[in-house]
Design the sequence.
């Protein structure tokens, strides 16, 4: 009996705690809900200060093929819901949607003082508008091209370098590895001016080359992560392959790489998300070249041009976030476990 | 003996072959630019008119360190912002990690995924979403404050998160909470590395939850706190995207968001003053290096390594 009570208490505690965290999570994710809600709203609703979670629009009534907005009209001390046929400053003409045969009703007063009747009415066409206004297909093509090419280049080059550091001894290896790690703390500001100048004189500024080509030469984070993983694969695998007559390159790609699939997938995901979000490189190298912009830059430009249409801005950000979010949801198991397990943070 | 020697040579050869992509990349994209960047600091050199490259001596350094007040001011701004940003970010990330690691939490994977999720959204997109949520007319934050505390928070006389000079660093810190997924995961990894026996022993000795937190959990995760601080400092010294997206690099009224990296960007890539820009870039580097070194220096007083090694 006592044991039962303890068990019940423990479960009650668990459920209460979980619910509290769920509440915190919903506050944390509130902006996401805001973005989605905003993306479905009309400009009218936003302009009229009708703040609501739901996307609302004035309710309309169709009569003889025309749409009339519904208003709450006070008549004889009673509030009636009427459709406005003709608006006027002193008096407006209404009709009763419940009783159209009664004909036109005249009402005296300024129609601007009247309240609309609101109905939930998600504006799915916002997505099409934002899609067209941002030239989204071009942004998407540029971003996808950049992300896919550089992920391939980065993973391939980092794997090769990581294998070199993990399996071969050569003079100065430890110092070189230290140098590799220390490049992480060097701010991009220091290298970006000479690199920019170099690419400027090569005529590459205004093209994608300055941001794509460096990824063929690996990067410290990814080399470090892959090396940590490769060190965990038994050396006997390499030796057995060598005895069977495989050269080092074949050993890497046919024996070691298949063993390291999960680390390779993790590095690919890291780089893919990085590339999808990359901002500084494209910003300096593609300035003014709108046909080459990736989503991150296109979105910034759109944000500054469409300040009067916050609903379309939010729609565009939702569209821009969908692909990384979908990939994350499908790959979250690999992603989260790798983040914790690879030891890159320890 | 001869054979061992040739095997060694074979290993050296292949080792260098495999690391050559990084070696070449290091020379072209790190070593050479570092040297050239340093040389640039002594030149008057603008890409808008390349015919006029001239030797400037220490002029650029003198200007940055003694004449241009904006440089020192921008350093002051990033320090003030760090002082506000760092404790809030670390406390938030650590609290979330503690909650996600709690034995009372059901459905841990679900919560981990969703607390990480905003970090996946392109940073530009999340800044724009926050710009909306914090808007005093159409945003939800002020509305929520109004509803909960029954005060007038919306409209032009409400809380103007993005325009109030007293709030702007807090606002940027709040926006930053969304990108703390990695920091949370690092804390979580640290928490999972603490041996359960320590807690069991403490429980037998009658230690309560808070006691365990301060006597076991916090000391045991000081190495990951240290790691997160170092990564955080390096990131903050290069803080750029949020102010750029919100103000398009024009800087906040009163220049409050004209941080070193923002100023660097303007000098180097708006005015194309490559020489002067290079000086600011080096100052950003030294600033980061100074604070990282400071952290390493203090580390032996508060970072605890269970293995005893430092």
Sequence:
């Amino acid at each position: 009996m006592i044991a039962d009570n303890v068990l019940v208490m423990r479960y009650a505690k668990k459920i209460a705690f979980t619910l509290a965290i769920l509440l915190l999570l919903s506050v944390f994710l509130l902006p996401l809900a805001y973005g989605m809600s905003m993306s479905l709203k009309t400009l009218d609703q936003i302009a009229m200060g009708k703040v609501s979670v739901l996307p609302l629009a004035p309710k309309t009534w169709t009569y003889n093929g025309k749409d009339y907005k519904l208003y709450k009209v006070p008549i004889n001390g009673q509030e009636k819901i009427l459709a406005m046929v003709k608006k006027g400053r002193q008096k407006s003409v209404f009709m009763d949607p419940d009783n159209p045969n009664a004909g036109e009703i005249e009402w005296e007063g300024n129609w601007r003082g009247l309240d609309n009747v609101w109905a939930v009415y998600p504006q799915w066409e916002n997505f099409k508008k934002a899609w067209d206004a941002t030239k989204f297909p071009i942004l998407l093509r540029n971003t996808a091209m950049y992300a896919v090419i550089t992920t391939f280049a980065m993973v391939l080059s980092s794997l090769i370098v990581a294998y070199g550091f993990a399996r071969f001894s050569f003079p100065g290896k430890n110092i070189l590895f230290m140098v590799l790690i220390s490049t992480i703390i060097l701010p991009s500001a220091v290298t970006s001016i000479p690199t920019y100048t170099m690419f400027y004189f090569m005529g590459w500024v205004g093209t994608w080359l300055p941001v794509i080509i460096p990824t063929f030469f690996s990067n410290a984070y990814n080399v470090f992560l892959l090396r940590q993983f490769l060190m965990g694969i038994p050396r006997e695998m390499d030796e057995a392959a060598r005895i069977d007559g495989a050269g080092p390159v074949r050993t890497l790609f046919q024996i070691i790489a298949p063993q390291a699939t999960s680390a390779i997938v993790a590095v690919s995901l890291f780089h893919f998300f990085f590339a999808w979000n990359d901002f500084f490189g494209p910003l300096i190298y593609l300035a003014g070249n709108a046909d080459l912009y990736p989503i991150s830059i296109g979105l910034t430009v759109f944000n500054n041009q469409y300040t009067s249409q916050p609903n379309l801005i939010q729609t565009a950000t939702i569209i821009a976030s969908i692909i990384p979010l979908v990939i994350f949801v499908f790959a979250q198991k690999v992603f989260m476990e790798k983040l914790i397990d690879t030891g890159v943070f320890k | 003996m001869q054979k061992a020697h040739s095997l060694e040579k074979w290993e050296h050869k292949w080792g260098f072959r495999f690391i050559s992509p990084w070696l070449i990349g290091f020379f072209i994209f790190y070593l050479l630019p570092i040297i050239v960047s340093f040389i640039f600091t002594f030149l008057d050199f603008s890409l808008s008119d390349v015919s006029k490259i001239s030797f400037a001596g220490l002029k650029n350094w003198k200007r940055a360190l003694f004449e241009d007040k904006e440089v020192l001011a921008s350093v002051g701004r990033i320090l003030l912002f760090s002082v506000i940003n760092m404790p809030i970010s670390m406390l938030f990330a650590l609290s979330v990690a503690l909650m996600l690691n709690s034995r009372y939490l059901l459905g841990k994977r679900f919560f981990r995924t969703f607390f990480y999720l905003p970090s996946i959204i392109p940073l530009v997109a999340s800044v724009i979403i926050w710009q909306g949520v914090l808007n005093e007319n159409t945003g939800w934050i002020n509305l929520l404050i109004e509803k909960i505390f029954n005060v007038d928070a919306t409209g032009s006389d409400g809380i103007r998160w993005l325009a109030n000079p007293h709030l702007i660093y807090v606002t940027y810190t709040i926006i930053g909470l969304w990108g703390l997924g990695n920091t949370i995961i690092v804390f979580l990894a640290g928490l999972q590395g603490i041996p359960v026996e320590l807690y069991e022993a403490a429980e037998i000795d009658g230690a309560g939850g808070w006691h365990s937190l301060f006597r076991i959990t916090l000391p045991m995760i000081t190495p990951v706190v240290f790691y997160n601080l170092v990564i955080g400092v390096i990131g903050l010294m290069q803080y750029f995207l949020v102010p750029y997206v919100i103000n398009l690099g024009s800087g906040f009224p009163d220049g409050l968001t004209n941080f070193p990296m923002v100023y660097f960007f303007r000098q180097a890539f708006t005015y194309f003053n490559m020489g002067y820009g290079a000086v600011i870039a080096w100052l950003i580097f030294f600033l980061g290096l100074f604070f990282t070194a400071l952290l390493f220096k203090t580390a032996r007083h508060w970072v605890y390594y269970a293995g005893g090694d430092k």
